[in-house]
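Troubleshooting entry. The earlier prediction with KG4 gave an output that would not parse, so I re-checked the input for stray whitespace and re-submitted. Clean input:
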Amino acid sequence: MLILSIESSCDETAAAIVKDGREVLSSIVATQIAEHKIYGGVVPEIASRRHTESISAVVSEAIESAGITYKDIDAVAVTFAPGLIGALLVGVNFAKGLSLRLGVPLIPVHHLRSHIAANYIAYPELEPPFLCLLASGGNSLIAEVKGYTDFNIIGKTRDDAAGECFDKVARTLGMSYPGGVNLDKVADPEKADTYRLPTPSVEGSKYDFSFSGLKTAVINLAHNLTQKGEEIDVPAMCGAVRKKVCDIMLTNTLEAAKEFGYKKISVAGGVSANSELRARFQEECAKMGYELFIPPLKYCGDNAAMVGAQGYYEYLSGNIADADLNAYATMPIDYRK
Ligand code: KG4
């Protein structure tokens, strides 16, 4: 089954052709990073406009580079939630038009489910059940992936996502958007203990995260040092934040794996590109005898190939949308149709 998939939830306009949920025939990503960089973050209105301008060309390119024609497409999958509402609507409406014109099913895909599905592309042997740590710019959670469309949230952030924490700390330290990537490059692991940072936890809810307090603590520390005329050791501070965020995510995930009896662990979302997170998960899982699945870097960030992968399993589970499909800024990963 050939699925044409579309992703436009934030600042990447993407389209892909995916066969049977696992084989990527093409994956095109048009990023808007350069435009949002001058504002220090994503400007929703600009994102929507750029999606509108690019989507047609991106979809055409995905079809051409897959070496197929529109007639070969069996279904159209699209990210419908969660994300920037104006941005999502561009993809949803384009997908609706295509599915109507081609007379093929329209498959709604949850953005976070698709991040997890990035692992199905990279690891043909991976099948649920497994435990997943999902960390992106807008979300951080630990979920049991009981089936391809069956999720149980074990822990989630009560406030900011890990990516948001990285991005805002990076911005405070003078790095350009997207801060998480730059913070990762600058961080010096040898100096990670230079600054003492708090370990936020949520009382009575041991798998939940709270990254807002950590973000504020680092920003306050940086401002205090500046006010006292002291120089900030940027690589040390980046190293400290990176280590702390990784400590928290690693500890919660491994404890959840133990309690819920999982030996297959996956990590997904934009933050899964983080070099320390990848290395430490590899090291710890090897020690514990757990199988680890992390997407290759090209499928960590937003792309449409992962939408096509998850779309296939949504289709098999009967999740087909009508022409009245809407986009939603928020939607839990374990939503029921
Ligand atoms: O999953 P994603 O591409 O978009 C959302 O769906 O939110 O995640 C983007 C987030 C941003 O916060 C970005 O700074 C972060 O992922 N990120 C990283 C790294 N690469 C991307 N954070 C830490 N280290 C990285 N190497």
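This one parsed fine. The chain has two domains: 2-116+299-316, 127-298.
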